[in-house]
Amino acid sequence: MSEKYLISQEIGSFRKPTYLSSVFHKIQGTEEFNVLAGRATIETIDLFKKAGLDNIGVGGEMFRWEMYEHQANRINGITFYGPVRSFDNRYYKKGSITDRIERKEPYHLDELEFLLENNISNIKIPVTGPYTMMDWSFNEHYRDRYETAMEFAKLLNEDMRELKREWDRKYSGKKLEIQIDEPATTTHPDEMNIVVDSINKSVEGIDNVEFSMHVCYSIDYRLLYDVMDDIKIDGFNLEFANRDTLERGTDDSSRPGYTDLKYFNEHNDKKKFMGLGVTDVHIDYIEPVELIKDRINYALKILPPELIRLNPDCGLRTRTREIGYEKLKNMDIARQEILKEIR
Question: Would you give per-residue pLDDT tens digits along the chain (343 residues)?
């Protein structure tokens, strides 16, 4: 069995070291910030490699504080009124669109430049998707939610083109991986057309890039699966473990969090891959290797191994670095054991 099967990947964020998190907002934009964020990135990449990950993302998003706020801060036309709660005990500054939006600076070019300078290529760049940027903003300017999402999509397309140009300067011919984070995807079931159109506008005209979509919570994934063949991406990285039990077993009753993989498989006409969330990022409990293996083996009864990737449900920034590492390590041990069994 080739190692290309059951690729292990990190989703995005990871807990920052205290030396960075304690001064992040005070020094952001300074050379000291770049030094500390770079140091934290390398330390986190080393931790990911030690845990056995194939794909190290961007090293835990050490250059970012929060997925919405990071991009909104780099867009003209957005006014901030105050913080709102996102999930767990996490908050972000929610903006209101008060004028025509346009990028005032790149979203993630500094991260990519740092990774390229350090000769790191097994990356996947997470970007916040246009539907979520629209849904998490107040709108005082555009006609409706559709127009707003499409405007965010135009900006994201500009930004990803810039990332691709920078990538090609060093790794021309090698595919860049970009993950579009869309946690708001299924929160409004009657707006799946906006999800589809805005993502497709975001990726329009960008070649030799593997695009995936990450959703870290959902009312009903079937809403997404019903339109997934219309979305011009290569695969999904989704949350499953959070809705699952901690019991052992590979039957439907033991693995309720994964049963909708059957619906995915039935509707996956374009053979898109599934990044399978096998460890819960909302609990400190470190899932045993055998439990993770059961989750993977259940999925393997439904999907071929070449369409399965392994990841946490979401970024691990709400857990300590020690717990995050243990979760990733157990995920990779489970992966290695299953690869030996199915060779």
Answer: 345 889 999 999 999 999 999 999 999 999 999 999 999 999 999 999 999 999 999 999 999 999 999 999 999 999 998 777 665 656 678 899 999 999 999 999 999 999 999 999 999 999 999 999 999 999 999 999 999 999 999 999 999 999 999 999 999 999 999 999 999 999 999 999 999 999 999 999 999 999 999 998 887 899 999 999 999 999 999 999 999 999 999 999 999 999 999 999 999 999 999 999 999 999 999 999 999 999 999 999 999 999 999 999 999 999 999 999 999 999 999 999 999 988 7
pTM value is 0.95
Concatenated DSSP letters of 209-271: EEEEEEES--S-THHHHTTGGGS--SEEEE--GGGS-SS--SSTTT-GGGTTHHHHHHH-TT-
Residue with tokens 């080739």: 2
- If we measure between CA atoms, which residue out of 190, 294, 307, 210 comes closest to residue 245? 294
Closest CA to 163 of 206, 215, 104: 206
329 φ, ψ (degrees, to nearest 5):
-65, -45
Helix (H) or strand (E) holding 326: helix 321-342
Nearest-CA neighbor of 146 among 192, 187, 96, 101?
192
Q: How far apart are CA 321 and CA 300, in angstroms?
A: 30
Tokens 């390229």, located at residue: 116
Helix (H) or strand (E) holding 134: helix 130-135
DSSP class per residue in 30-92? SHHHHHHHHHHHHHHHHHHHHHT-SB-TTSS-TT-S-HHHHHHTTEEEEEEEEEEE-STT-EE
